[in-house]
Structure formats: structure tokens, C-alpha cells
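look at this one:
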Amino acid sequence: MVITGIRKDVLLLGLIRAFSIVVTLSSVVLLSRVLGPTEYGRLSTVLAILPLLCIPGSGGIGPLVLRGVAGYWDNNPSRLSGLLRFVSIWVGIISLATVVLTALAWESGLYRGTQDISNLLLVGGILVVLKGYMAFAASALQGARKVVISQLVEQLVVPATALTIYGLLALSEYLDLVFALAGQALSVLIGLAIMLYGFSSCLRSQPSASPEYSLEEWLPSIKRFSILATLSIISSQQPVLLTSLLGSAEDVGYLKVSISAGLVISLPLMVINQAITPRLTVAAIENDRAKMEHISKTTARYSLLLALPAAIVLLVFSHEVISGVFGAAYLGGGVGILYVIVIGHLVNVACGPVGLVLNMSGREKSTLVWMFVSLCLTSIASILLIPEYGAIGAALAATFGLVLWNLLLLWEVKRHFGFSAAVL
């Protein structure tokens, strides 16, 4: 079996990821049922905008901090101290500036969306700063070789705390858009406090040293990593963002619940990818293409085998799933949205870990190029389909982009390595 011989901490990371998705989906169910399509659509729009606002302050600092802390930890305490001080100042100043500029741009009418979410963005500004510092703390912990603790807090403690807060607010009938965002901010604050305490404990083993700075190295790294983060975030948030611009709040709500339900299908691939990464990396370094093909195909087959039951349930009992899990109000968007999303996720799983194969073999540039191409074509499809067809148009465009990206990466793997990473 693929995961035979994988270290226990890697398996634990996979389990944390799986539980994180389950908890996150539970929050989606609770919020969608309590708020309804229109209000949940407005909340989803804000939650799609916030990651973009995080990019200037923290989008590029994660890999820099992880790599820097790991590299400086044992032999350069002065550079370590300088890096931590520089990044803490960078995150605070740039995040605050981004929030202020966004608020000014919003008030000046530069945004021409169909929804009034000004009050939510003001509350969300607090989240931007908190998320920036949490990305900093999480990367610092990982660089200090506390990967499991970092992921446990970020992927499980924070979502579980948010779910608990949502549940308490719903029981007391106080759960609305502002309180939902405030609850998320509180959960991030709690997670950040835990991470900072954990990293401070690790720092006690470091000798005191005067900070030494290397801005000529750090600033270009932030720029490169920010570009990568921007493409990745835009790609993941594009359906909701374009639907909020070109459609209605109800369309966003209908689309978001179907996307959330569809994540169940890709869950096996996400978890197995987490577990196979070390072995796939070693095989790529050794240029062992036979082993790379075996790992890739086995991953695709196990993932599809585990995903098919969920896909069948979503396709056959789509009415019951939408009305029973998210609420009958979401049937107003039609079950066709869910059908389209499910098909896209099935293709994604059947294609296997194509992106991982390229990234772990040093060909991440190819992944970015084809991501950019599919992003542009998906945007064109969205502009053409959403004004006329609403949420189903957004689902068709998103699925088109996902399928296209997977097929392009499959071709890239075949061209470079001579094998297919897909099921067949």
C-alpha cells in the first residue's frame, strides 16, 4: 500500500487535514442553514476577499520564515533574531496599510459589485491582521521543527473553536454576519496565542544575540512567494469572487454550498497526497520514474475508489443532500450546480497527484504557467456565463478550469517523465 513505511508524524498530518475538512464543512452547514442563501452569500464573498487582502502583508512571508528559521536555528542566532523582528514589523505595517487602503477604495466606490458588504469588511480587517500574524507564527513553528503542533493548531484547533463559537451563537440566536466574522476572529486570536506561546518556548533554547538583517535576500523572496500566493489564492477564490461581481448574493450562496459539498470527493486525494509527499520527493530526487509512476497511479486509484461512494450519494440523492444538510432554501439554485461540481472533483481525483509530481521534481514553474493559463480561460468563461446563467454558469466555468488545469498537468507529466499520473 502507498502509505506503508510513511513516518507516523506524516500520517498524523494527514489525519489532522481530514478532521480539519470535516470541521470546516460542519461550520459551512451551520452557517448556511442559519443565515440562508442571501446572507451566507454575502459572508462567502467577504471570506473570499480576505485572503486577497492578506497577500501584501503575509502572502510571501510563510516560505521565507519557514526556510529562514530552519536555516538559522542551529548556527546563526543573530540572523534568526533579525528575521523574526523584520517579519513581525512587516506583517503589522503592511497588513494595516492594506486594510486602510481597501476601506478607502471601497468608500470611494471603486468596487462595483452587486452586494453591500462594507460593514463586514471593516470587521474583516481585524481578521486580515490576525491571519497575517498566524501565518508568521505557523511558519516559525514549522521552521523550528514543530510541524505537527503548528498544523494541529492551524488546521484543527482554530476551525473547531470557530465551530463551537458559531454553535453557541446559533443557540442564543445571535448568529449573524458580523458575529460570524467576529467569532472567526476570536478563534484565530486563540490559535495565534497558542502558537506564539509554543514558539516562545522553543526560543528559550536559543542564545541571546543582536539582530542581524539581510533585506537584500529577504525582500526579493517575499516578492517571489507573494506572486505564487496570489495566483494560488485567486485560483481558489475566483468562482465566488466573480459570482459576487457578476451575479447576486443568492448565486454566491448556492455556489458555495455546492463547492463545499464537492470537497468531500477530493478529500481522499488531499489526505493521501499529504502522506505520499516524502516518498514522492525522494523518488523525484533519485529520478526513479518507475517509483514515481507507481506512487502516482496507486494514489489516484485509491483516491478514486474512496471518492466514488461520496460522488454517487451526491449525484443520486442531490435533493436530499442539499435540503437535508444545507437547508431547503438552497434548492432554489437547482441541483445542476452540484452535478457540475461533482463531475469536476471526480476528474480532479482521477488525474491523481499531477501537481505534486511536478512540484516535487522541481518543475513548479510548469504548474504556475498552466495555472495562469487555466485561470485566464476560466475568467473568460465566467464573464460569459455568470451574467446569463448565474450560479450554474459559475459552476460550469469553475469545473471547466479545474478539468483543463488537470489535463494540462497530465500532459506536462507525460511530456517530462513519460508516464501518466492518472488512474489509467
